[in-house]
Amino acid sequence: MYATMRMNLNLSTLAGLDELLAAQIAELFSTLGDASRVRIIAALTVGEMNVGALADRVGISESAISHHMRQLRQMRLVRTRKEGRYVFYALDDQHVADLFRCGLEHVQHG
Fold it and tell me: Comparing C-alpha atoms, which of 26, 27, 76, 78 is closest to residue 51?
């Protein structure tokens, strides 16, 4: 029943997609339109990391990671947790991981 209600909600939202919602979705996909940011999201699917660990995993500088993290935070794709002088980043919620996995499956499928 929940899946049916969720599907109906999604279909009715799609049918009546207004300009503001369309712009917000476009901004989300624009944010994900950078390979480094996608690699950061991929790295965070396994758990939270600080800037140094992300830089090592993704293979870009810590300053570049920090720049990308600002954009990802603004779009609510990641959240932060401070521990001492370290800031740890994690995916904001399961929707972000699901969005990444759907995109990955789509690309691998075709």
Answer: 78
- pLDDT at residue 15, as a whole number: 66
Length of the chain counted residue by residue: 110
CA–CA gap between residue 84 and residue 77 (Å, rounded): 23
Give dist(CA 89, CA 86) in Å, integer: 10
Give me the number of domains the chain comprises.
2
Q: What domain range is 70 assigned to?
A: 32-109
CA distance linking residue 110 with residue 6, whole number of Å: 27
Full-model pTM: 0.83
The pLDDT tens digits for 33-54 are 999 999 999 999 999 999 999 9
Distant-in-sequence contacts of 94-99, Cβ < 8 A, 24+ apart = 96/41, 97/45, 99/32
**3 and 42 co-located in one domain:** no
Q: Is 89 found in the same domain as 42?
A: yes
